[in-house]
Amino acid sequence: MKKAYSYAMRNYMSIAVAAAAVLVIAAAVVIARGEIALGAVQGVIGVALFAHLMILGYKRKRDMVRYLRLVTKDETGLSENVLMSVPMPMAVCGIDGTVRWYNDKFSSIFGGTLPYEILDDMIPELKWSDVLKNQKGKGIITELAGRIYSARWFVLRENRAQDDISAHYSVFFYLTDITREKQLEETCDKERADIAIINIDNYDDFSQKSDDDAMEAVCSKIRAAINVWAKKGRAVVKKTDSDRFFVVLEHGSLQGYIDEKFDVVENVRKAAEEAKIPLSISIGIGTGGNIEENETAARNALDMALGRGGDQVCIKDSDQFRFYAGKNREYERSTKVKARAVAVALEEYIKGSDNVIMMGHRAADFDCFGAAIGLQRAVREHGKTPYIVRERVSPAIDKMYNAIKGIDEYSGMFVDENEVLEEVTPDSLLVILDTHRPSMLPCPKLLERVSKIILIDHHRRSTEFVSPCSLIYHEPYASSTCEMVTELLEYMSVGSKLTKTEAQCLYTGILMDTKNFILKTGVRTFEAASYLRKLGLDTVRVRKMFSTSIEDYAMKAEIVETARMAADGIAVAYTENSHRNIRVIASQAADDMLNLNDVSASVVVYPMNGGAGVSARSLGTINVQLITEKLGGGGHMTVSGAQLKGKSVPEGVRMVTDAIRVYAEESK
């Protein structure tokens, strides 16, 4: 059939007949009035107009036949009737996108005749400019009349004559129904197996000091909660250990769990609180690969969740980690078995090394610096040479650094990036302190130059992690790295050899990170402080480490004065003063803001290195790490920060406010 052509021809003929009829009628009326000459002229014009339109219609028909021949004729002489019967929607468009020819299948999709319709108006996903640029189209996916089609095209060119350099172009367009394939693909995707591994946090610790009956009762409730949760998504649960569950779930149910914000974590916590045993669960989920790959991803995700303090869910696919829940504080472990084991292993690594290089994070603080000072004593007592990498003198630790560098025993211990690279040998040992992120190190090149790396850190784990490591001691429950190092020194044979100055450095780091033993302070924190006190540290001298000038104190007050509530319980303040000690002052201001009424968390934005810095603090009911992570930072539940490169302070305040609002919405 030639519906498009017939429709066009009928239009031309209708116009011709109508025009001729009007002129003939007008001529008859004029002649009837006796104006024969005028009537004759009108009659002639009518006949001429009719003839002109007929000729024009003939030319149009000839052009359309050329289009038809173009798309219905190949080397084998394929006829239009055969092409019209092909069970595939097809159309031919002009170079401007107008529909010139189509078959029945194509018209049935759009419900009628379509001559001179614009194709990209009919198919929203289609851009005609892309069609012309991509002459052999890779295709697009579109939904038409309730079906899904793959649309493809190619441009045809036909010379009008042998000696005519001009050419005639048209676009051949065809659709393939892929609805069934898409449905099968969607079904396969929904039924694809994801793997989850559930861990009961601190199970070993609490099972040792809790009544057996009470422990069994709460574990029974936890298992029941996990089974109810799994059943909602038609998942299969297998208990693999007293504190571990292996889960196979359909990928289609994963989004439902996400929408419910993994309420099983909250349900388990409530059940444990009712039994007065502070247990929680962590879940690692692997998705996006085959079963083997998903199991590996699930184990990595669980390690990440536990490294961030537990009581949360981590999902790992091929691209990223995603975190859910995790808004509660970590529970301290009472057992020190791991600390003893790490102390023994660390001592053996030190004995087997030529020298030991200790490196903290950039812009060192009391915790980072104090841990290095404490650990270097163990290195010296084993007859090895210690080095501490310093990027530059941080204003935060000026007093401590100046007190240390004046002691003869520590001469040559502090080295910069270039100097430390010269000291590296095949048997050098690198100890990374108070960070696990390579981007935070003052000398990342060391990671490539040494073969033995030990990591000691207490920050909640981020997706960026130093790897590979010979030994990892990563405990988010700990108040500080200085607390962890103090425990290690206590179990090493050289712990009692600490000097008063070294004990003061360790104590100062604990004091700073706990905010005078207020935040993240557990039994083991006081035990570490007590051990250092026995070694003769002077608490008055430590207190003087935190003294400040009147100018700095006034600036801190100015920052607090700008504080405004950004959400329930969260205050935001800022300063645009680029003072040398602004990072320290901003952190102190954030600490002081926690003393304000109705403030459970505080955030201060300040200028920093051509951008904006963010310092966040919390009393523990609000997880500020989740806020700063949205800004590319990290840290702890109660202490965290971020750097906003290339951003002004006002821009930083807006970004922080937006992150707080997202956090508040997610916490509902």
Automatic annotation (TrEMBL):
It holds the Pfam family DHH. Mn(2+) 1 binds at residues 361, 365, 434. It catalyses: 3',3'-c-di-AMP + H2O = 5'-O-phosphonoadenylyl-(3'->5')-adenosine + H(+). It comes from the Bacteria. Its main location: membrane. It is found in: Cell membrane. Gene3D superfamilies: 3.10.310.30, 3.30.70.270, inorganic pyrophosphatase (n-terminal core) (3.90.1640.10), PAS domain (3.30.450.20). SUPFAM superfamilies: DHH phosphoesterases (SSF64182). Has phosphodiesterase (PDE) activity against cyclic-di-AMP (c-di-AMP). Belongs to the GdpP/PdeA phosphodiesterase family. PANTHER family: BIFUNCTIONAL OLIGORIBONUCLEASE AND PAP PHOSPHATASE NRNA, CYCLIC-DI-AMP PHOSPHODIESTERASE GDPP. This is Cyclic-di-AMP phosphodiesterase. It comes from Candidatus Ornithomonoglobus merdipullorum. The lineage of its organism: Bacteria, Bacillati, Bacillota, Clostridia, Candidatus Ornithomonoglobus.
